[in-house]
Amino acid sequence: MANFMFATGIENSIPTINQGRTRIDQMELCHHYDRWREDFDLVEEMGIQYLRFGPPLHRAYLGPDRYDWEFADRALNDLRARDITPIVDLCHFGVPDWIGNFQNPDFPELFARYAAAFAERYHWIQLYTPVNEMFICATFSAQYGWWNEQLSGDCHFVTALKHIVKANVLAMEAILKRRPDAIFIQSESSEYFHADSPAAIGPAEVMNAKRFLSLDLNYGRRVDSEMYEYLMDCGMSREEYHFFLGRKLKQHCILGTDYYWTNEHRVHADGSTRASGEVFGYSEITRQYYGRYGLPVMHTETNLHQGPNGDEAVNWLWKEWANVLRLRNVGIPTVGFTWYSLTDQVDWDTALREQNGTVNPLGLFDLDRKIRPVGQAFKQLIRDWRDVLPAQSVCLVVPVVPPSHAGRQDAIEQEARLAGMLKRPPAEVGDISGG
Question: What InterPro entries does the record tag this protein with (predicted)?
Answer without folding.
Answer: GH (IPR017853), Glyco_hydro_1 (IPR001360), Glycosyl_Hydrolase_39 (IPR051923)
